[in-house]
Amino acid sequence: MSNSTKINNKINSFNKTITVSGDKSLSIRWVLFSSMANGKSKAYNLLLSEDVLAAINAVKKLGINVKLNKKYCSIFGKGPHGYKYKKDIIINAENSGTLGRLIMGILIDTPYKIKIIGDKSLSKRDFNRIAEPLNKFGAKIKLTKKGLPLTIEGNKNLKPIRYLEQKGSAQCKSSIIFAGLKTEGKTHIKAKISRNHTELLCKHLNLPIKVKKTQNYDLIEVSKAKKIKTLNYKIPSDISSAAFFIVLTSLSDNSKLLIKNVNINPSRIGIITILKKMGVSIKFKKKQKYKGEIVADILVNSSKKLKAINCPSKLNSGAIDEFLIIFLVAAKANGTSYFKNIGELNQKESPRLKWGSKILNKIGIKTITTDNSIKIFGKPNLKINKKIIIKDYLKDHRVFMTSVIAALVFGGSW
Predict the structure, then answer these.
(1) What is residue 389's predicted lDDT score, i.e. its pLDDT?
(2) What is the mean pLDDT of the chain?
(3) Quick check: bond before 149 cis, omega within 30?
(4) Out of 78, 237, 385, 402, which residue is the most buried by the measure of CB atoms under 10 Å away?
(5) E strands along 109-255, which residues?
(6) β-strands 162-165, 187-192 pairing
(7) Which sequence positions are flagged as catalytic?
(8) Each residue of 251-301: pLDDT tens digit?
(9) 361: which strand partners?
(10) Residue 275 region by backbone torsions, left for phi larger than 0, else alpha for psi between -120 and 50, else beta
(11) Does residue 103 contact residue 32 with C-beta atoms inside 8 Å?
């Protein structure tokens, strides 16, 4: 029997305070850094999603002791070179591109071949963008049609590299940083600006990394880490999870929402900048710095008048996971919105740009879509009075949640 969700009623007005789940990017990185730390690390509010549990299972296969209970997770690291490598290890990244790609950099010193597999969706994604730079260090990585399954065999005599990362891929950049932390000498990365969680955690842990910012690129220098401090962490809430509730509130009548303790890392809040430009009322409260990241409470109010946007490409990397939900705001905005240079959406868990257009068309919104852009012709008085069926989400929760928010704010029978 297949799983299904039915929604037949719009949401009523609300005034609420909520806390959303822990940040997925930080949860996975905490697991990986803690597994290489010298001693016991503890995390509260760790996101216990399939992706994070896959990361925990991965480090356990590498000989790391993990204790998980309802309140917190403890990881007993054995140092940067403390993994217990053995023959025939298979690591299942499940649906997690973050885990699958970042752990490749960490495994760069394995003396035995390690196999990395994933689910059907992840297996189709591009892993060559990670294999190419890691092979330059001296690793031997063999892919299946540029994807998974793959095998990685490390090298005792790794050589530092200079690499130009032009896609704005935080996963690629992070994998190279992890490899650099295991390599003698100085690794240099010129990376198109993207999420910087890995760099911030490295700085918080006093690891040998230097970052110089230019207008479009970060110039990163990484040296070998002899020791990594333990990391006790209360994981901030995830802006990507908060995004659904921000849009739900902005598109609902006479509603107000406060979302507590959200990670508002400047490289992640493209959605906030975009929505503000479109007329959404959003304010940060109790803003503070925490272990390198910036956190705040987010206050959102219903929006009466929404404006179309010609979205600047420079905001893309900071909103890459939130564009589907942003498209719903464009659907109700006055005028035609244009989002360009977003072909990377089709490299996610599903072809999200195609899905975005498909959902909008189903709710009566005209779109013009290319492989790299979308025009959305907004309807300020958009209401749905028909039955809508959406099948085959390809395990992409963002596609599913975008459909849920559309049903709750626009009506219809879903």
Answers:
(1) 87
(2) 95
(3) yes
(4) 402
(5) 114-117, 140-144, 147-153, 162-165, 187-192, 209-213, 217-222, 233-234
(6) parallel
(7) 321
(8) 999 999 999 999 999 999 999 999 999 999 999 999 999 999 999 999 999
(9) none
(10) alpha
(11) yes
